[in-house]
Structure formats: structure tokens, C-alpha cells
């Protein structure tokens, strides 16, 4: 009897098991749906938040760009960079809470500027005076031409070289050395310190020619094979040097230039 009852109980338990498993599967499915829905909602929200963040960042960046505008002609506080292409032409100690101000204006060919003014690319300084600009020195700024005396602090534009030198107080560069600037060409004596334009080489040296003050001069030529070139200069592209002669270039030595 006991065994029969046990078998009956087992049969009853087995009969109920599919229902329990079905219920368990339903619970698992429900949990999975809930979890999947939550994850999907989170994943969907993340791009939305990222997109909103990017939009906000772009908005701030655009706002910053809009607020940073180049100033036009007028007074700006001392220490403020000049607008590109502008120069300083006047100064006052008043304004900007005592810091002082500069008057900035667009650069042009032939304009007196203050000593602290930027020098836009392509311009040179051809005259100088210790007066002007409310106690600051003044410089005359202009575009370069072939055969122009420039002051010692002037930039040298590409394609130009210095061929003569004058001491301070001459050629309108008051208290400043002056240099004669010419367009580069084959066969010029240039002063020591003059740029060597690409494709040119120094082939002779002279301590007395053209450039006063004992600074020395160098003979500038277009590079070609079999020129003896002086030391302390770049070798042009497509060339190399070979045999060295210590007697060349007035005793400073020279090397033979050959094509690669």
C-alpha cells in the first residue's frame, strides 16, 4: 500500500511538473522582456544624450566663434594683439583703466607706424625717427622695390639681398644702420649676413668691397657645375661638393660644386 501511494505521489508530481516548468519559463520570459526593454531604452537614450551634448557643444563653439570677431580701425588696449593686416600708428596713455591704448589701422604702402607695431608680411622699414607715437619711435613702412635703403631692423622679403651698408644716422634711418636692398640676380656682391636665396651660392669673399664697416662681402652667383663655392652656406638641391681648396674664397677655403 505504501509503495502504491508513493508511486501515485510520484505520478502526481510528474503530472504537475510541466505546469510548473511552463510557469517558470513564463517568468524568465517576462524578466527577459523587462530587462531587454530597459537595456534598449538605455541604449536608445545614450545616442540621444550624446547627440544633445554634441549639439550643445557645437552651439557653444559657434557662439564663441561669433563672439571672436576681428576688430576694425580704432583704439585697442595696450597688450591686445593687432588685427592681422593692421598696424599701430598712434598711442595714448589714457584709457583701458590706465593701461594705455594703440590706434590700429589697415597697413598700406607708405605709412608711419609706431615702434611696437607688427610688420605685416611683405613690408619693409625704410625710415626712422625717435619722435612720434606719444614718445615711442616711429618707422616708415612700405612695400619693397629694387634699389631701396632700408633700416637695420627691417625684414628682408624673399627674393631680395643686401648689397651696401651705411652706419647709423644716414639714409633717413636716424640712429640706426641702413642697408641697400636689391632684387637678387646673378653676379652681385652682397653684404655678410645677407640671405642666400634658393638656387644661389657665394663663390668669392672680400673684406672691403661695397659693405662698409669691415663686415665683408660675398659674390653671389646662380648655382651651376664646376663653381668653387665658399664654406658656411647651404648646398643647393641637386648638387654636392667635392674637392676642397684652402686657397679659395680669399683664404677661407672653397669646394667644387657638382651635380648629383
| General form | elongated
Radius of gyration: 41 Å
Largest sheet: 3 strands, antiparallel
Mean pLDDT comes to 77
Number of strands: 15
Oligomer class: single chain
Question: Could you explain how this protein is built, in words?
Answer:
This protein has 260 residues and is an alpha+beta fold. It is 27% helix and 31% strand. It has two helices and 15 strands. The protein has helices spanning 2-67, 248-251; strands spanning 74-77, 86-92, 101-106, 111-114, 124-129, 138-142, 148-151, 160-166, 178-183, 188-191, 200-206, 217-222, 228-229, 239-245, 254-259. The strands form five sheets. A three-stranded antiparallel β-sheet has the order 1-3-2, with no helix packed on it. The chain has a three-stranded antiparallel β-sheet with strand order 4-6-5, with no helix packed on it. Strands 7-9-8 form a three-stranded antiparallel β-sheet, with no helix packed on it. A hairpin with an 8-residue loop joins strand 2 and strand 3. The model is unreliable at 1-69 (pLDDT under 50).
Set out the fold topology:
Elements: H1 2-67, E1 74-77, E2 86-92, E3 101-106, E4 111-114, E5 124-129, E6 138-142, E7 148-151, E8 160-166, E9 178-183, E10 188-191, E11 200-206, E12 217-222, E13 228-229, E14 239-245, H2 248-251, E15 254-259
Antiparallel strand pairs: 1-3, 2-3, 4-6, 5-6, 7-9, 8-9, 10-12, 11-12, 13-15, 14-15
Amino acid at each position: 500500500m505504501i509503495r502504491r501511494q508513493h508511486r501515485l505521489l510520484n505520478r502526481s508530481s510528474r503530472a504537475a511538473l510541466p505546469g510548473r516548468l511552463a510557469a517558470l519559463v513564463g517568468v524568465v520570459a517576462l524578466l527577459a522582456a523587462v530587462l531587454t526593454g530597459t537595456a534598449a531604452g538605455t541604449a536608445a537614450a545614450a545616442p540621444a544624450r550624446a547627440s544633445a551634448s554634441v549639439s550643445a557643444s557645437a552651439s557653444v563653439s559657434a557662439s564663441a566663434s561669433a563672439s571672436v570677431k576681428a576688430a576694425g580701425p580704432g583704439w585697442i588696449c595696450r597688450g591686445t594683439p593687432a588685427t592681422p593686416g593692421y598696424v599701430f600708428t598712434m598711442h595714448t596713455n589714457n584709457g583701458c583703466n590706465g593701461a594705455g591704448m594703440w590706434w590700429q589701422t589697415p597697413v598700406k604702402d607708405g605709412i608711419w607706424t609706431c615702434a611696437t607695431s607688427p610688420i605685416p608680411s611683405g613690408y619693409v622699414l625704410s625710415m626712422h625717427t625717435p619722435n612720434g607715437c606719444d614718445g615711442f619711435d616711429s618707422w616708415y613702412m612700405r612695400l619693397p622695390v629694387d634699389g631701396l635703403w632700408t633700416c637695420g631692423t627691417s625684414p628682408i622679403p624673399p627674393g631680395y639681398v643686401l648689397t651696401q651698408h651705411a652706419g647709423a644716422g644716414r639714409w633717413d634711418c636716424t640712429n640706426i644702420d641702413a642697408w641697400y636692398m636689391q632684387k637678387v640676380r646673378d653676379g652681385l656682391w652682397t653684404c655678410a649676413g645677407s640671405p642666400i636665396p634658393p638656387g644661389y651660392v657665394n663663390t668669392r669673399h672680400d673684406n672691403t668691397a661695397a659693405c662698409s664697416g669691415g663686415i665683408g662681402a660675398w659674390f653671389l652667383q646662380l648655382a651651376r657645375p664646376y663653381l668653387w663655392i665658399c664654406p658656411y652656406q647651404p648646398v643647393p638641391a641637386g648638387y654636392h661638393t667635392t674637392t676642397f681648396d684652402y686657397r679659395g674664397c680669399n683664404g677661407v677655403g672653397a669646394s667644387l660644386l657638382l651635380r648629383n
